Amino acid sequence: MAKKIVKKRKFWHVFGRAVIFLVLLVLAISFLYPLYYMLINSLKSLSGYYVNPFGLPNEQLQWQNFATMISQFKILKLFGNSFIVSFFTVLGLVVMGTLASFSFAKVDFKGKDGIYLAILATLFVPAQVTMIPMYISFAKVGLVDNYLGVIIAYWAMFLPETIMLMTANFKSIPNELLEAATIDGCGYFGRIRNVVMPMGWPAISLSIIFFFICSWNDLFTPMVLLKSMDKRTVMVALSSLIGRYTGDPPFQYAGLLMSAIPALAVYAIFQKSIVKGMSMGAIK
């Protein structure tokens, strides 16, 4: 009887793991297939694409699609524009989010809960609703057609989410460690640098990944606020491919694939940092 129970438990254990594996496999394929589709079609000629859009290239690989994207479309310059916006967006979010989240998580002050709830309430306001008044305000102070205007807009949109994410993580930091840091002579910023940032690194890394990708891939905000052609971000410029190169999908796929590389690189780099940060938090 006991052997039957053990075998039954083992069967359901193996069955459960198999189901989880299949679900993860389906999700992985669904996420990776668009990249695979863009890759194989970006290396085809126009005729090769229309003959077999789902198969591997059966002719000479068309690397000139990428060369043309660099030489004529100036995609590297567009990368620079997007990187400026995304880098300073993430930098500001990390600095402001860390300071604000530490205060909400570990500092007692009057009205803390009300202010925190008011900040979270802004998450329910769609960005499109605030874009017109934001544009009018930015136009009056010279922030239209200016990278700073786009960065400030992203701060306004993403900071509440950053605070919510970091505050939840910082609350798990033991108060004893902060008290020990205070005894050792650390002030407000010293406790953040020596205790909060190392132990809260998983949330900080996740914020870097998520909001870098959000700002890099965003089309709506820079399209509204940036007017000059030489200041366009890569996504705004690539949207023009739909009109200019409608009849050349391989060229479009080459641009889309190149635009995905920086975001994927940031994710790959900081994914390891999340695991490392979790380990540091567990050890401490």
Give the domain tally: 2
pLDDT below 50 for ≥5 consecutive residues: which ranges?
277-284
CATH class of the largest domain: Mainly Alpha
Roughly what is the average pLDDT, rounded to an integer?
85
> How many individual helices?
14
The H-level CATH homologous superfamily of the largest domain, spelled out, is: MetI-like
Q: What is the succession of H and E elements?
A: HHHHHHHHHHHHHH
Walk me through what this model shows.
- Keywords: Cell membrane, Membrane, Transmembrane, Transmembrane helix, Transport.
- By secondary structure, the chain is an all-alpha fold.
- The protein folds into 2 domains: 2-42; 64-283, MetI-like (MetI-like fold, Orthogonal Bundle).
- Helix content is 79%, strand content 0%.
- It is built from 14 helices and no strands.
- Helix 4 runs antiparallel to helix 10 and helix 10 (201-217) packs antiparallel against helix 14 (249-283).
- The longest helix has 41 residues, at 2-42.
- It is flat.
- The two termini are 46 Å apart.
